[in-house]
Automatic annotation (TrEMBL), chain A:
Pfam family, one: MoCoBD_1
Taxonomic lineage: Bacteria, Pseudomonadati, Pseudomonadota, Alphaproteobacteria, Hyphomicrobiales
Record key words, sorted: Molybdenum, Oxidoreductase
TM stretches of this protein: none
The Aldehyde oxidase/xanthine dehydrogenase a/b hammerhead domain, residue ranges: 33-144
Protein name, per record: Xanthine dehydrogenase family protein molybdopterin-binding subunit
UniProtKB/TrEMBL annotation, chain B:
Protein name, UniProt field: (2Fe-2S)-binding protein
Organism: Mesorhizobium qingshengii
PANTHER family noted in UniProt: OXIDOREDUCTASE WITH IRON-SULFUR SUBUNIT, OXIDOREDUCTASE, IRON-SULPHUR BINDING SUBUNIT-RELATED-RELATED
Oxidoreductase is among the record's keywords: yes
Domain 2Fe-2S ferredoxin-type: start-end pairs: 6-82
Keywords, in A-Z order: Iron, Metal-binding, Oxidoreductase
Gene3D superfamilies from the UniProt entry: 3.10.20.30, [2Fe-2S]-binding domain
Iron is among the record's keywords: yes
């Protein structure tokens, strides 16, 4: 077990440079000096600036767009409307489903949500474009909108049969259970709100398109641009050197990208388009609002006999988003009877999208609140009831867990938090006028696996270069790939240069679902092993090599030097060896694709998500796990809730870099605190608008909202999950935070809040 | 056509820059779009997130809510001007050591705020640091490490 220590730089005795070491971010110096150039910060000659105009109604048709004044405004180069923008082709979806053969227009005539792109201005300067955009006059024929799930017109929605999970006879077992709890749990619209707004620079050279755009998936987005514009995939280059946060929102090419690339093509100049902060609330989807009911039937000892779960999430009028609400419900606890079904309901909003742990996050809010209610009902400690219902295997897939250190997480977290000192009754712990509550909840996220490829080059100056079209949005890809190459080749990490974020590099699938680290460390490990084999092979076999006469079977490379393992013979730097055999570099490509993969397989793997491996493939069910222990202080008079202490124990398998993994875990926990107490997209019911579409009114946690947070790693290497034994880090830690806080609030106040966020009016 | 631009002279990181810009150009856009000083970030353009924090005459200022023309004749320091002769400012070094950032997009603003926070004498305790750093949002959630970095740097600056 690795206990986080703030100032320690060693972990498990591992050198900082090696996999598992606490190496500081290798991209850190560029970020702390302002030298890191993010995508839209490229300085290009002749750059023109685009600004979007968006719909002010939620449903209806654009009757007319008067651009007279805008066109006459100073500096304006172009006014794009549905009538003037070039026609594009519809692109396939992220599964690679062939698209319908019809044109695609990123500027709308038919309005299905407020904030839809209807026009764009391109001008010489940003200021001119902003001013001219305000002069565009759009008139509409408005029709009644369905504003959200609670709208009387919304209905029950569309059943999603693929979400149905059932075994035993859940309804009968619930009806006959001695103890029954049943409640509804709701989560509102939530927004990723990365600090870097979405935007891009698009530049055409002939029929070749270069797009500088923050991206969680260069190859997937390049495919979409290629299909929109009817050019070969190879003609599109995506560049995304640093990404200012994504949290799921930067994986797909979106309408604003189509507008900017169209403008650049029409104008024959590079065009930059960056969404305003308010536009980021409607230019792409946040987390869908959800509704769940969870019914637990149990015996008097709190052993679950049946779980009946129903879920609903909102989606858009013309797009489909399913937030899998039964994902945690179906695996967290052992139960002989289970039923989960889900509907989606169409409302007038932008199609929702992925936000940190889509599915697992709201799912855990339901089941982890419900089991706390059951614990109270039967009078059993909330931690004890979780252990009593511990799932020894995957209850749904009926397969063994690859690894599940959840029992260890409960034990380590409880010990560190001091859980044994908790008094069970609500309102029984107090400090002056503050009611103190202690809550616990578990979380989980599946191990998503896919394939990636990388090039490793050993250069004549003893340095090593790694290239991959994968990305680093703060998870630490630059750093862990440097550590992987350094350890595998046998050089110091500071002589490894990792190059990411260019679709010309060897390809990678989407950075999402916590899959990238496992995929790419595997690919770099293979490429580096292959490069090392070549290096040693040449050192032994090349007649010009000083090692040739040694007739050794093998050689060792360590700290950038190559020598015989017996210690006899020469001891050379890699540079000296390569120089002696007349080579300026050695290069190897490595990938984790199955050996017989065709070029078509590879294209499909890197540009769609169709080839991702199920987490229950083969004999095992693979998941990361965590347990959160949280203290809240509730002001008895005002109902304000402050999180005062967090201890979380997490099983992400082997950590490639604990320093960076701890940062991601804490970040997930903090986003979970925001979800529990602050974050809610508020809908203006008259106009179907998000009214708090900015960072002052959509409240994300500030520094003053967050206490110190302690995280404990309880993971062990899981070689069923990845080449080097890691599971997932980034998505995991947010899962279970909101129910842990809701449970703590119940313990503090005796009030059960089942609608997030837990704001003061729900407590007084 | 009538002239719509004005001459603006800016003193940034000890260097003089002469610009001919519209009066409505913000200091933030002047830095990023006219001078290539993109270390200062645009997160909201409304003074809500703190990503654009720079120093004007030594005080922290939101560059998105400051017109470039307002900064004429005043000493502007951006993240690019913080390190001296290649040596990191103690706050920068502490941010790296404490892993006080992930995506890096809020980091310039956090560091500029932290330098001022220490100079103002508002880094006396963890709670004080949290309060006086609360104007700089970090969606990656690096807050506990930011507090640790500011605490560490405050001690180094004092010694």
């Amino acid at each position: 077990m690795t206990v986080h220590t703030r100032h320690g730089d060693a972990s498990d005795g591992v050198l900082a440079d090696a996999v598992g070491g606490r190496l500081s971010r290798v991209d850190g110096p560029a970020k702390i000096t302002g030298a890191a150039k993010y995508a839209v910060e490229q300085q290009l000659d002749g750059l023109a600036h685009a600004v979007l105009v968006e719909s002010t109604i939620a449903s209806g048709k654009v009757r007319s767009i008067d651009t007279t004044e805008a066109r006459a405004a100073r500096g304006v180069l172009q006014v794009l409307t549905p009538d003037t923008i070039i026609s594009l082709r519809t692109a396939s979806d992220w599964l690679g489903t062939p698209p319908p053969d019809k044109p695609y227009c990123p500027l709308a005539r038919d309005i299905t949500f407020s904030g839809q792109h209807v026009a764009a201005i391109v001008a010489e300067t940003f200021e001119q474009a902003v001013a001219a955009a305000a002069l565009v006059k759009v008139s509409y024929d408005e029709t009644p909108a369905i504003v959200d799930l609670s709208d009387g017109k919304a209905g029950d929605g569309i059943p999603i049969d693929a979400m149905t999970k059932e075994w035993g006879d859940a309804h009968a077992a619930f009806a006959s259970a001695p103890v029954r709890v049943c409640a509804a749990y709701n989560t509102p619209r939530e927004y990723q709100a990365p600090m870097e707004p979405h935007g891009l620079i698009a530049r055409w050279e002939g029929d070749h398109l270069t797009v500088w755009e923050p991206s969680q998936w260069l190859d997937g987005m390049a495919r979409t641009y290629a299909e929109w514009f009817g050019v070969p995939f190879e003609n599109v280059r995506l560049v995304s050197p640093y990404i200012g946060g994504g949290f799921g929102s930067k994986a797909l090419a979106l309408g604003h990208g189509a507008v900017a690339a169209s403008a650049a093509k029409m104008l024959g100049r590079p065009v930059r388009l960056v969404m305003t902060r308010p536009q980021t609330f409607t230019g792409y989807g946040g987390r869908a609002a959800t509704r769940q009911t969870v019914a637990l039937g149990a015996d008097h000892d709190g052993r679950i006999q049946s779980i009946v779960h129903r879920g609903v999430n909102e989606t858009s009028m013309d797009g489909m988003w399913v937030e899998p609400l039964g994902s945690v419900t179906s695996i967290m606890y052992a139960t002989p009877n289970f039923s989960s079904k889900q509907n989606v309901v169409r409302v007038n909003l932008v199609v929702p999208g992925a936000m940190r742990a889509p599915g697992e996050n709201p799912s855990a809010f339901g089941i982890e609140s419900a089991i706390d209610e059951l614990a109270h009902e039967v009078g059993i400690d909330p931690l004890e009831i979780r252990l009593r219902n511990y799932a020894e295997q995957d209850p749904h897939a009926k397969k063994a867990w690859s690894t599940r250190q959840l029992r260890e997480a409960f034990a380590a977290g409880a010990e560190r938090f001091g859980w044994a000192r908790r008094t069970p009754e609500p309102r029984s712990m107090r400090d002056g006028n503050q009611l103190i509550g202690w809550g616990v909840a578990a979380g989980t996220y599946p191990v998503r696996r896919a394939y990636g490829e990388a090039i490793v080059r050993i250069l004549a100056d003893s340095s090593v270069e790694v290239e991959s079209s994968s990305i680093d949005m703060g998870q630490g890809t630059y750093t862990i790939l440097a550590q992987t190459a350094a350890e595998t080749v046998g050089v110091p990490a500071n002589s490894v240069v990792v190059k990411l974020g260019d679709s010309r590099f060897p390809r990678a699938g989407v950075t999402g679902g916590s899959r990238l680290a496992g995929v790419m460390t595997g690919a770099v490990y293979k490429a580096a092993t292959s490069a090392l084999d070549q290096l040693v092979g040449l050192a032994i076999s090349d007649p010009r090599s000083p090692f040739h006469a040694l007739q050794a079977n093998t050689l060792v490379v360590a700290n950038g030097r190559i020598a015989s393992p017996r210690g006899d013979g020469p001891d050379l730097s890699i540079a000296e060896l390569l120089n002696s055999i007349g080579r300026d570099h050695i290069e190897a490509t490595g990938d984790t694709m199955p050996a017989n993969s065709t070029a078509q397989d590879r294209y499909k793997n890197y540009t769609t998500i169709a080839m991702a491996l199920p987490h229950t493939e083969g004999d095992y069910s693979r998941h990361s796990w965590c347990a959160h222990f949280i203290e809240v202080r509730v002001d008895e008079d005002f109902g304000t809730v402050r999180v005062s202490r967090v201890v979380s124990a997490l099983d992400s398998g082997r950590l490639y870099n604990p320093k960076l993994a701890e940062s991601q875990w804490k970040g997930g926990i903090i986003m979970g605190i925001g979800q529990a107490l602050l974050e809610e997209g508020i809908v203006d019911r008259r106009h179907g608008r998000i009214v708090n579409n900015n960072l002052a009114d959509y409240l994300v946690p500030t520094n003053a909202d967050i206490p110190d947070i302690e995280v404990i790693s309880v993971g062990i290497p899981d070689l069923h999950s990845s080449v080097l034994g890691g599971k997932g880090v980034g998505e995991l830690a947010i899962v279970g935070v909101a129910p842990a806080i809701a449970n703590a609030v119940f313990h503090a106040t005796g009030k059960r809040v089942r609608d997030l966020p837990i704001t003061l009016e729900k407590l007084i | 056509m009538t002239k719509t631009t004005i001459p603006v002279h800016l003193d940034i990181n000890g260097h003089h820059h002469a610009l001919e810009i519209e009066p409505r150009v913000t200091l933030l856009d002047a830095l990023r779009d006219r001078l290539g000083l993109t270390g200062t970030k645009k997160g909201c353009d409304h003074g809500q997130c703190g990503a654009c924090t720079v120093h004007v005459d030594g005080e922290r200022v939101l560059a998105c809510l400051t017109l470039a023309a307002q900064a004429q004749g005043r000493a502007i320091t951006t993240i690019e001007g913080l390190a001296r002769e290649g040596e990191l400012h103690p706050v920068q070094a502490a941010f790296l050591e404490q892993d006080a950032f992930q995506c890096g997009y809020c980091t310039s603003g956090q560091i500029m705020s932290a330098v001022a926070c220490i100079r103002e004498g508002h880094a006396g305790s963890d709670d004080e640091i949290r309060e006086y750093m609360a104007g700089n949002l970090c969606r990656c959630g690096a807050y506990p490490h930011i507090v640790a970095a500011v605490r560490q740097a405050a001690l180094e600056v004092a010694s």
